[in-house]
Amino acid sequence: MEFYGIKFQTMNAFTRLCCLLLLCGSMGFKTSIMQTKHAVYVDQFFVPAPAIDSFMERMLYNRKLLRTMPGLLHQEAYARKDEQGNLYVLTTASWESDAALQHARVTVQNAYKEEGFDLAAMLARQHIKLERSVYQPLED
């Protein structure tokens, strides 16, 4: 099978689907899979009790920095303490697109570089655990 000069018999099914979606997009056809969807950046932290004050200071700095970036739709933070006084924090930042999220990542990394801040070193030094994920909204 050939479609716009592409021979599909030499491609697997996934590659054929990707090519068709790209071709349809370039021809002006829209499908729900091709729509740019907002991205939700989720950080989950475990913060030992002795590190809470410095962690909270840094988190507030980061949240202020994010508010200045184009494409930020919404951000939230949630926290709870366990019986030992350790802190569990969940933060979310919703971005209008993956491109806006990537731009924010680069901007934050550059800001860290300029001020000489090393996130990995801070987390290790204070025994803070971080799990980071990016989520996409589900279709109804």
Short structural description:
By secondary structure, the protein is an alpha+beta fold. The chain has helices spanning 13-26, 52-67, 98-115, 119-126, and strands at residues 2-3, 6-7, 39-47, 72-81, 87-95, 129-135.
Blueprint (SSEs and pairs):
Layout lengths: L1 E2 L2 E2 L5 H14 L12 E9 L4 H16 L4 E10 L5 E9 L2 H18 L3 H8 L2 E7 L5
Antiparallel strand pairs: 1-2, 3-5, 3-6, 4-5
Descriptive notes:
It is a single chain. With 140 residues, the protein is an alpha+beta fold. The protein has two domains: 2-34, no CATH class; 39-135, Alpha-Beta Plaits (2-Layer Sandwich). The protein has helices at 13-26, 52-67, 98-115, 119-126; strands at 2-3, 6-7, 39-47, 72-81, 87-95, 129-135. The chain has a four-stranded antiparallel β-sheet with strand order 4-5-3-6. It has a two-stranded antiparallel ribbon with strand order 1-2.
- According to DSSP, the number of beta strands is 6
Portion in strands: 25-35%
Q: How would you sum up the major sheet?
A: 4 strands, antiparallel
Instruction: Report the CATH architecture of the largest domain.
Output: 2-Layer Sandwich
**What is the topology, as strand order, of the major beta sheet?**
4-5-3-6
Q: Determine the number of helices (DSSP H or I, runs of at least 4 residues).
A: 4
Which class do the helix and strand fractions yield?
alpha+beta
**Mean pLDDT, as a whole number?**
81
CATH fold annotation of the largest domain: Alpha-Beta Plaits
* Helix fraction bin: 40-55%
Q: For the record, give the distance between the C-alpha atoms at the N and C termini, rounded to a whole number.
A: 34 Å
Order of SSEs, N→C? EEHEHEEHHE
Structural domain count = 2
What CATH first level of the largest domain would be assigned? Alpha Beta
Unreliable residue runs: 1-35
The rounded Rg comes to: 21 Å
Q: Characterize the overall form.
A: globular
Organism: Chitinophaga parva
InterPro entries: Dimeric_a/b-barrel
Protein name: ABM domain-containing protein
